[in-house]
Design brief:
- Strands 1-2 form a two-stranded antiparallel sheet.
- The chain has one domain.
- Helix content is 60%, strand content 7%.
- The chain is built from four helices and two strands; from the N terminus they run ββαααα.
- Strand 1 (6-9) and strand 2 (12-15) form a beta hairpin.
- With 120 residues, the protein is mainly alpha-helical.
- The longest helix has 26 residues, at 56-81.
- The protein is rod-shaped and about 70 Å long.
- Helix 1 crosses helix 2 and helix 3 crosses helix 4 (91-114).
């Protein structure tokens, strides 16, 4: 049987719950942190469920890895469909074109992975 200790807060006894340290919590990159922030702000029940079951960071890393691999694939597809200008001849045009392609790919990734409820 588990030995649970409680702390009295006002008239209530609250269990002393201690979560383990999340492994590699500091290694979340942009998409993982965006997913965590989205869950915390807009899906608090899912966020708390994942946090208390100690699956939050593994879930965020999974979304992060999926988003990064999908970004690579989509960038390759977009560059094949709409090739950028020569970088040495038109450096600014190349940078603008690549930025546009990245924004197109990221818009899809954010909608389908980071800000989606189906992955909770």
């Amino acid at each position: 049987m588990l030995n649970i200790t409680y702390s009295q807060v006002g008239d209530y006894l609250l269990p002393n719950i201690v979560l383990g340290e999340p492994p590699d919590a500091d290694h979340l990159t942009r998409y993982g942190m965006m997913r965590k922030s989205f869950l915390k702000q807009h899906r608090s029940i899912s966020y708390n469920r994942l946090l208390l079951s100690e699956k939050l960071f593994s879930h965020c890393r999974e979304v992060q890895q999926s988003a990064e691999s999908r970004l690579e694939i989509m960038m390759e597809q977009l560059m094949r469909r709409d090739p950028p200008p020569n970088k040495t001849d038109c450096g600014l045009a190349w940078a603008a074109h690549m930025t546009m392609l990245r924004l197109i790919a990221e818009e899809s990734i954010l909608a389908k992975l980071v800000y989606d409820d189906a992955h909770v």
